[in-house]
Amino acid sequence: MGRIEGKVAFVSGGGSGLGAAMVGRFAEEGAIVYFGDVNAQNGAEVAEATGGVFVEQDVSREDHWVSAIRQIEDQHGRLDILVNNAGILGPGALETIDLDAWNRLFAVNVTGVMLGCKHGGMLMQRNPGGPSGSIINISSNAGILATATDCGYSATKGAVKLMTQSIAINFARRGLPIRCNSIHPGPIDTPIFDQWKPNEKAAKRLEGTLLEMIPLGRLGHPREIANMALYLASDESSFSTGSQFVVDGGGTSALAGL
Ligand SMILES: NC(=O)c1ccc[n+]([C@@H]2O[C@H](COP(=O)([O-])OP(=O)(O)OC[C@H]3O[C@@H](n4cnc5c(N)ncnc54)[C@H](O)[C@@H]3O)[C@@H](O)[C@H]2O)c1
């Protein structure tokens, strides 16, 4: 208990899945937690369950980031932890990609992360006592190994990995002790896969494919990602920046079928 006591945190996409688990986990460990989401109903429920402060936010909109960060600065004067977690799946096969869906994917998964780093990072530089903080960007195992079926999702998650490294070394070389790392989850049991549920056959096929790629033989739990985020949010990870933290049940260590 108390591993991030008194620190001020913001988690994007905190209304569901991994984000909701991080909001709860950070609050358990003593942080003051703000979180954003486009889904106001889920946001209200997570706020009720965790004590986190909900801010309605679309991560692709710079004005939403400006007002969320201003609210935190007005109320606490600092930001210690930022998790850029909000993300969506891509439009699928190359031949059928709809350009509006493609642009939306990049707006949420890439531009949203950049805007969070920009505005959250600027408040971290103004922290009383000098610049400090930890930025955690949620990429994916698909940001390390490519999926054949969704080039857009892989491209956005690969972009998050290198954006994280660029921001980390930029801060470090300027002498700013603000760390920036990425987490690469494998398949985790969250509502992100709900779109397949109405089609029982497709859902079964997806689950089978996901399980096949995990040597540990099960999907991950949101809390297992929240625990990694907690480590990176805390001072326990003080020498880590620009690094990739894989939490995937061994998936990216295995050669398929061998
Ligand atoms: N679940 C997995 O297997 C898995 C694996 C690897 C990476 N990820 C990544 O983890 C992150 C969280 O995924 P999840 O599984 O919890 O998904 P989820 O769908 O359960 O939660 C995502 C949340 O983001 C919100 N959101 C979507 N668009 C938004 C926007 N424009 N602005 C603000 N909020 C927005 C949604 O309303 C939702 O509450 C995503 O970046 C996802 O790509 C998930």
Could you characterize the architecture of this molecule?
With 258 residues, the chain is an alpha/beta fold. The protein has a single domain (8-249), classed as Rossmann fold. Helices cover 44% and strands 14% of the residues. It is built from seven helices and seven strands. It has helices at 17-28, 40-50, 62-76, 99-125, 151-173, 200-212, 222-233; strands spanning 8-11, 32-37, 53-56, 81-84, 133-138, 178-185, 244-247. Strands 3-2-1-4-5-6-7 form a seven-stranded parallel β-sheet, with helices on both faces. The model has no long low-confidence stretch (mean pLDDT 96). Bound molecules: nicotinamide-adenine-dinucleotide. Residues 12-13, 15-19, 36-39, 42, 57-60, 85-88, 108, 138, 140, 185, 187-188, 190-192 line the site of nicotinamide-adenine-dinucleotide.
Can you give keywords for this protein?
258 residues; alpha/beta; Rossmann fold; seven-stranded parallel beta sheet; 7 strands; 44% helix; globular; binds nicotinamide-adenine-dinucleotide
Q: Could you give a short description of this structure?
A:
This protein is of the alpha/beta class and 258 residues long. Helix content is 44%, strand content 14%. It has a 7-stranded parallel β-sheet with strand order 3-2-1-4-5-6-7, sandwiched between helices.
CATH superfamily: NAD(P)-binding Rossmann-like Domain
Main-sheet strand order equals 3-2-1-4-5-6-7
Number of domains: 1
Task: Please summarize the sheet with the most strands.
Answer: 7 strands, parallel
Based on CA inertia axes, which overall geometry fits? globular
Strand element count:
7
Strand content: 5-15%
CATH class: Alpha Beta
Poorly predicted runs are: none
Mean pLDDT: 96
Order of helices and strands: EHEHEHEHEHEHHE
Distance between the termini: 42 Å
The CATH topology annotation reads as: Rossmann fold
Helix content: 40-55%
Second CATH tier, the architecture: 3-Layer(aba) Sandwich
What is the CA-based Rg, rounded? Answer: 18 Å
Structural class: alpha/beta
* Count of helical stretches: 7
**Ions and ligands:** nicotinamide-adenine-dinucleotide
